[in-house]
Amino acid sequence: MTLSYSLPTRIGYGVVGVILFVLLWKAVGVFGWVNPGILPDPFLLPETFLLEWQSDRLLPAIGSSLIHYVWGLGLGAVCGIVVGLAAATVQRFDMLQAYVSRILRPIPPLAWVVFAIAWFKVSHAGAAFVIAIGVFWVNYFATYSAVRNIDPRFYELARSFGQGGYWRRSISITLPAIAPGLLSGIRTGIGQAWMTLIAAELLGVPGMGQEMNAAAGVGAYDAVVVYMLTISAVYAATDLLYTLVERRVLSWRP
User: Fold this and answer.
1) Is residue 89 within 8 Å of 144, Cβ to Cβ?
2) Cβ-defined contacts of 229-236 (< 8 Å, 24+)
3) What is the predicted pLDDT for the residue at 16?
4) Can you tell me the mean pLDDT for 192-198?
5) Secondary structure of the chain as H, E, C letters
6) What is the per-residue pLDDT for 253?
7) Higher pLDDT, 18 or 169
8) How confident is the model over 66-86, as a mean pLDDT?
9) Alpha-carbon distances, residue 26 vs 47, 164, 229 (angstroms)
């Protein structure tokens, strides 16, 4: 039996968990469990945050990252959904692309960085390309699986009401039925895009990843952690916004 806790109780437990995590972090440094200077003092991070803010590095880095993040996320999600939908609903196309997807899927997005630099140089376009590849596969498989899990009886019912054509069937049956799975794939892609983005920026594309790399190069690990936490905060904001949109779109779901 699963217990149901109120929202204030869940928030309270979450806050306590964060406090315990920070105290453990502090204890690691106090007791010398890691080499001094490698792990920054968590209580000094607010000061480092203010320094990064006042130096006019933080906000420009966030803005730069968001440029290729939005483009990469958008392109990867749209292409993944379209190709996944086509593969799951058109048998000949599915057979045609089956082995190609099996060949390309295991290749991590970062392996394409070399070609991104060769084709787009060190630019927003190159970073967006790398991000789009990672997001593409998330949405491709989410869409493909969602379509495959539709009850065939829905299509039989649609044909009995004269909705047997591909486009009519897609609009009246397929898209509404896969909406929860499709939106879940997009949400997963939002997180995948951030993980891929930072790795792509480590090669020189302007953004928070580049600032992290520069800070690590001079041993400013407190600044590295500040940018890590900033990434977490931006992701939390985008995820919260998406959750509100998702709930509105799926308001019909019980």
Assistant:
1) no
2) 229/45, 230/58, 230/62, 231/194, 231/198, 234/62, 234/66, 234/194, 235/190, 235/191, 235/194
3) 94
4) 86
5) CCCCCCHHHHHHHHHHHHHHHHHHHHHHHHCCCCCCCCCCCHHHHHHHHHHHHHCCCHHHHHHHHHHHHHHHHHHHHHHHHHHHHHHHHCHHHHHHHHHHHHHHCCCCHHHHHHHHHHHHCCCHHHHHHHHHHHHHHHHHHHHHHHHHCCCHHHHHHHHHCCCCCHHHHHHHHHHHHHHHHHHHHHHHHHHHHHHHHHHHHCCCCCCHHHHHHHHHHCCCHHHHHHHHHHHHHHHHHHHHHHHHHHHHHCCCCC
6) 67
7) 18
8) 93
9) 16, 64, 16
**Greatest CA separation for the chain:** 73
The answer for residues whose C-beta is within 8 angstroms of residue 213's C-beta and 6 or more apart is 201, 202
Q: Report whether 193 contacts 72 (CB < 8 A).
A: yes
Segment 112-161, tens digit of pLDDT:
888 888 898 888 888 999 999 999 999 999 999 988 888 777 777 667 76
Is residue 191 within 8 A of residue 239, CB to CB? The reply is yes
pTM of the complete model: 0.84
Q: Are 92 and 150 in contact (CB under 8 A)?
A: no
Q: What is the pLDDT of residue 254?
A: 60
Summarize pLDDT for 22-51 with one digit per residue, the tens: 999 989 888 888 877 788 889 989 999 999
Rounded distance between C-alpha atoms, residue 134 and residue 108, angstroms: 8
Q: Which residue has the tokens 């495959």?
A: 148
